[in-house]
Specification:
single chain; 16 helices; mainly alpha; about 425 residues; about 0% strand; globular
Length: about 425
Amino acid sequence: MSEPILSITDSAVVGNLSVNATESLAAVGIVGAFISMLIWVFGQTRSAISSIVSQYLGAGNLEAIRNLPSQAILIITSTSLLIILLTNPFASSIFKLYNASGLILDYCIEYYRIRVFGFPFTLLTIAIFGTFRGLQNTYYPMIIAIIGTLINVVLDFAFVYGIQDIIPAMQIKGAAYASVVAQVSMALLSVYYLKIKTAIPLVARLPFNPEIKKFIVMILNLFVRTLALNITLYFASAYATRYGAAYIAAYTIAINLWFLGAFIIDGYSSAGNILSGKLYGAKAYKLLITLSNKLIKYGILLGLGIAFIGFLIYYPIGKLFIKETAVLNAFYDIFWIVLVMQPFCALAFIFDGIFKGLGRMEDLRNLLLVSTFLIFLPALFILDNLELKLYAIFIAMFLWILGRGLPLILKFRNIFIPLSQNT
């Protein structure tokens, strides 16, 4: 839950500014979509490291890949520095692609040019979290994430609104600075806990581990998969921006709450990831089927619980983000779709995690390409032509989720039920 709260806090605090709240909230949403794309594309190290480490742990041969995480961390953090150099000078052109213009574009550039410097620290944290997950340890990542979230929440209020005679009000720039400080803090804590709580070295040394090739292939498959995922989010954000400031602001609220539900469910997805990798490495196929059945049950219950709570606080939750009537009306029109999606999101995300743990990244790549290009985009174009606006975006996303989840469940059971019967 702590990960999306970073973005939600920025949105809620900025959306309640006394000046240009709608434009500020829209800018945070647009930049958040782009940064999420970068993090999801390059942050797939977490899943790849977790998969390899957990499988070797299950096979009782952890020493063979002891130096792999540090080498993976070096590769991905070096790449992140290149991303800063390539994107920072072209921030204006990037956000024009999202249909940002005028004051919204100015705010996008201002916010991004600060917040992007937290990107390498985020990728470092993600890679270390993947190592901990592979070791079946989710405790220290939880502690780090909670501390980072608390830092971000406190600094958001302090930097955005200011503290009289101590900190000047920095408005949207303050939200960016708060996020960067939180990201740096989480990276330092991650390095500290990895050093004192594990035998995994922090310094990368040659020669490369033999599994680095498998790691890179996994990353490439996940890279393509995540590009497809972010094409979905790009078109959703771009279309919402095209509809006007009130619509992109409403979309920002809705998508951040969707991300919150997704990350709550991701706890069970991560459990599926790390446990399926370990059980697969140990060839414990019957337990793997038992795990999947339990996760289906827990996921559906969790999704229904999220939806139920969302309907209980349907109107108050919108007012936490903004008070402008036009934005709230647009948000209330489509928020119910976000809530109804939740049980289906749970199934899709949980089996996504299981397949990552199994190392079957090519299946995830192919399925998301199909879901994006043959389901989401055609649905969005058709519904947009019917002038459904935000309805078009979120109905298309609902269909996209169904296309992602159901085939994974069927494929998993077709593969592992026969294997479990033969062992």
